[in-house]
Inverse folding.
DNA sequence: CTTTTATTTAGATATATATCTAAATAGAAG
DNA sequence: CTTCTATTTAGATATATATCTAAATAAAAG
C-alpha cells in the first residue's frame, strides 16, 4: 500500500469520524438533501454544513448538483462500496505501514542506549536486546574466518571487559560456533 | 440501527481516523508488539502509545497479554471483519439517523420564521415553505365541516390580511376543496 | 435593476485531542 | 528487600477542528 493510499484511508476515517458528518451520511443514504435542509435537520448553521459537505465531497463520498439557489448533495454509494470491499483484510492492513523504513528503528535505539561508540556500556538484561548487541559484536568479526579463543577474547575486550561472558553468549545465541579445538567462526544469520 | 450502534460506529471511525493509531493498526497487522516497540517504531513516547492502545482496546480492536513487564498487543482481526462486512451497505447507513425524530424540524423552522404566534408575518416565496404555512392554516379549520367563503375569509383574516390569497392557495395546493356554491371543506392530506 | 434567498468564504473562538513530562504502579532481577 | 524496567496514570500544553458570525457570491423573484 502506497503512502497515497494510506493518506486516503486516513482521511476517510477522519471524515467519517465526526458526529455531524456521520449523521449527514445517514441522512443522504435515505435521500438527497440541500444544505439548508441538512442544517435544519442537524440543527447547525449553513456554513457548518457547507464545511462538512466540502470535506465529504473532497473525499469523493458525495456529489452535488445545483437546483436554482439550492445545492443538492447525494451519496456516492459506489465510493463506499469500493472503500469497504476488502479494505480491512489483514493482508491489506499489513502493508499500511512501510516496515522497511521502520524495522531497524528498534535495534538502533537499543544500540544507542547500550553502546557508547565502540564500548558496550552495560549487558542488557533482556535476551531480545542482548541479541541486538550480539549481532553488532558478531559483525566485528570477519565471515569465513577461524579465530583462536585467545584472539577472540582480545577483540571482545576492546568493547567490554567481560570477554568470557560475550564469547559464550555468541555461541549460545548462535552468532558463532566453536569446534573441539577452541576455534571459533561466524554463523550466517537466518533472519528469523 | 440503534443509538448505541451509531455511537460504536462513530467511535470506530474516530479511533481509526488518527495517523498514529492507523499506523499502529498497520504494524499490529504484521505482528504483535509491546508498547515500547511501538513507541520506537512510531517515534513517540510510551504514554502516548499507551493512550492510543487504550482507545483501541476499549473499542475491541486489539487485545493484550502481559509478558513480564511487557504488555503485548495484537490485532483482533475478527472485530475488523465484523466491522467491514456490510456496515457500509446503503440500507444499513440509511438507518444511521432516526428520521422520525428529525423529520418535522424543517417544518418547525419554517413556522418559526414565517409565523409570529398566530400571525403570518409574510408570504413565503417558495412553494415548499408556503405549503408548510398552508398546512398550519388548514389545521385551523375543522375536518368534516363545510365553511361559507365569507366565514372562511373572516377566520383567515385573524392570521393574515390577504385572505383571498390564502383562500385560493388552500384550494390550489389541495388543502381544501370548494363546490360551485362557494362552500369550502378540508381535504385529507396524502402525506407524500 | 433591485431585493431576496441559498450557499460559500473568511475569520474568530471554543472545544477536543494528541502529545509530552513527571509521578505512580507493578513485575523482574539481583 | 532494593533496584531496575515497562507501562500506566495524571496533568499540562499545544495543535487541530467544529462551530459560529459576518461578509461575499450568485441565482431567482419581483
Amino acid at each position: 500500500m502506497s503512502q497515497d493510499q494510506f493518506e486516503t484511508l486516513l482521511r476517510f476515517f477522519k471524515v467519517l469520524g465526526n458526529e455531524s458528518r456521520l449523521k449527514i451520511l445517514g441522512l443522504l443514504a435515505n435521500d438527497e438533501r440541500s444544505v439548508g435542509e441538512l442544517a435544519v435537520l442537524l440543527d447547525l448553521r449553513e456554513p457548518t454544513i457547507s464545511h462538512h459537505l466540502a470535506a465529504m465531497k473532497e473525499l469523493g463520498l458525495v456529489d452535488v448538483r445545483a437546483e436554482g439557489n439550492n445545492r443538492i448533495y447525494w451519496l456516492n454509494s459506489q465510493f463506499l462500496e469500493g472503500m469497504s470491499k476488502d479494505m480491512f483484510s489483514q493482508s491489506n492492513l499489513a502493508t499500511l505501514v512501510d516496515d522497511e523504513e521502520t524495522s531497524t528503528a528498534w535495534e538502533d535505539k537499543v544500540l544507542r542506549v547500550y553502546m557508547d561508540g565502540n564500548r558496550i556500556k552495560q549487558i542488557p538484561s533482556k535476551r531480545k536486546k542482548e541479541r541486538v548487541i550480539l549481532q553488532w559484536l558478531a559483525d566485528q568479526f570477519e565471515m569465513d574466518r577461524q579465530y583462536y579463543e585467545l584472539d577472540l577474547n582480545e577483540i571482545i575486550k576492546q568493547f567490554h571487559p567481560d570477554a568470557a561472558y560475550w564469547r559464550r553468549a555468541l555461541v549460545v545465541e548462535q552468532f558463532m560456533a566453536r569446534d573441539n579445538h577452541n576455534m571459533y567462526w561466524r554463523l550466517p544469520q537466518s533472519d528469523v
